[in-house]
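Design job #97: recover the sequence.
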């Protein structure tokens, strides 16, 4: 059956991104013709092995790492779990972990599980703007701290954290440092040598490649204990037969992101600002969640007073518009976002927050459609008359 042709106005790129056509093209041969096992000794298998090596080089180049420092994983979640797990298992005397209250659920859930297993976790808070105080991390580090894990940019608000500064503090204190950089490729320039982090996580599906492939950077010289054990794949650091096609796709997406970051970013930022300012100026009672800067150029998180985000999303969906309330992982659970709650928003204001996130494929038309529909949707839910674009004399159907 052909798929629905109803247009999709996709404003949820922090949840996942469209796979780039060039990426599909690059990976296809590894599903159709070159389906050998990279570990096999014969030429047919070795060809797949060469493709994996090339993909590893491209992903390494994206973050200025050495290919030997890259471990392919199944996703960003696994990469985060693997980094923290490794720090704990390679330093058996150290049972303390420091992370923040605004991390992705990958870290939140893993941290809570570690607490049940007898580890101690210090959860660093954030202020009203969603920013953390580096000094608090400095203060929290102890003799038995195994690792500090702080995300580079928040997936819900786009707020960027001072990871370079935090990494320097950890280095001075001899503590391992991990950063979840999943939201940042194509949006920030990444350089592990400049940042001097020990571990860094990425996920390909946030970068116009397929779901189910991620990577963990492990700095040369840092001890690594595998999280997934099996065959000797990934230099014995992550078992499981290589997902060759997805690795090739990740490599291609990394290459494209590196080549085009600057030209895309300026346009995305201008489009995001037009979208955000358009909503704020046409609807009363809209507030931005999170600092205006430093913030990812593609992300806007807005609260609509006296409106439930779930209701807004339902009405947006009827117009073909995809957006999200905070993180996709909490959608449907009807619990206010842990990120917005940590920033001190009331449950009501947190439940009225909508996240809009753009990509290089976002168009003026998509933003225009949103700006045309949003005022009447909010007015309908509030039982009021929209300010624009509907003229004042026009009756609103309830
Ligand atoms: C999406 C996301 C993840 C999880 O990545 P998966 O590949 O979906 O497991 C982790 N951290 C952040 C910040 C994310 O946005």
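Job complete. Output follows.
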């Amino acid at each position: 059956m052909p798929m629905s042709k109803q247009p999709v106005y996709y404003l949820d790129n922090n949840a996942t991104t469209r796979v780039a056509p060039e990426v599909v093209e690059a990976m296809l041969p590894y599903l159709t013709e070159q389906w050998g096992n990279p570990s096999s000794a014969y030429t047919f298998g070795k060809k797949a092995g060469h493709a994996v090596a090339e993909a590893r080089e491209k992903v390494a180049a994206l973050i200025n790492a050495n290919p030997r420092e890259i471990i392919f994983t199944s996703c960003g979640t696994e990469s985060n779990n693997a980094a923290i797990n490794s720090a704990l298992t390679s330093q058996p005397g150290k049972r303390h972990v420091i992370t923040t209250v605004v991390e992705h659920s990958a870290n939140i859930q893993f941290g809570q599980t570690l607490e049940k297993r007898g580890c101690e976790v210090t959860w660093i808070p954030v202020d009203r703007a969603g920013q953390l105080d580096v000094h608090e991390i400095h203060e929290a580090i102890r003799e038995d701290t195994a690792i500090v894990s702080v995300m580079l940019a928040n997936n819900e608000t786009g707020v960027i954290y001072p990871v370079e500064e935090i990494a320097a503090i950890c280095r001075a204190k001899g503590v391992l440092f991990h950063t979840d950089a999943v939201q940042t490729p194509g949006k920030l320039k990444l350089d592990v040598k400049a940042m001097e982090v020990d571990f860094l996580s990425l996920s390909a599906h946030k970068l116009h490649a397929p779901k189910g492939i991620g990577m963990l950077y492990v700095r040369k010289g840092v001890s690594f204990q595998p999280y997934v054990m099996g065959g000797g794949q990934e230099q014995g650091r992550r078992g499981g037969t290589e997902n060759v096609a997805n690795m090739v796709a990740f490599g291609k997406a990394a290459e494209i992101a590196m080549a085009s970051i600057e030209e895309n970013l300026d346009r995305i930022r201008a489009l995001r600002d037009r979208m955000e300012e358009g909503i704020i100026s046409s609807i009363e009672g809209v507030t931005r969640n999170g600092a205006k800067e430093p913030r990812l150029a593609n992300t806007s998180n807005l609260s609509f007073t006296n409106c439930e985000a779930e209701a807004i999303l339902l009405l947006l969906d009827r117009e073909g518009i995809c957006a999200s309330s905070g993180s996709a992982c909490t959608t449907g659970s009807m619990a206010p976002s842990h990120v917005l709650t940590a920033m001190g928003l009331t449950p009501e204001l947190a439940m009225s927050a909508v996240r809009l996130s753009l990509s290089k494929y976002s168009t003026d038309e998509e933003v225009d459609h949103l700006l045309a529909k949003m005022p009447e949707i909010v007015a309908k839910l509030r039982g009021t008359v929209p300010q624009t674009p509907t003229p004042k004399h026009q009756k609103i159907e309830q």
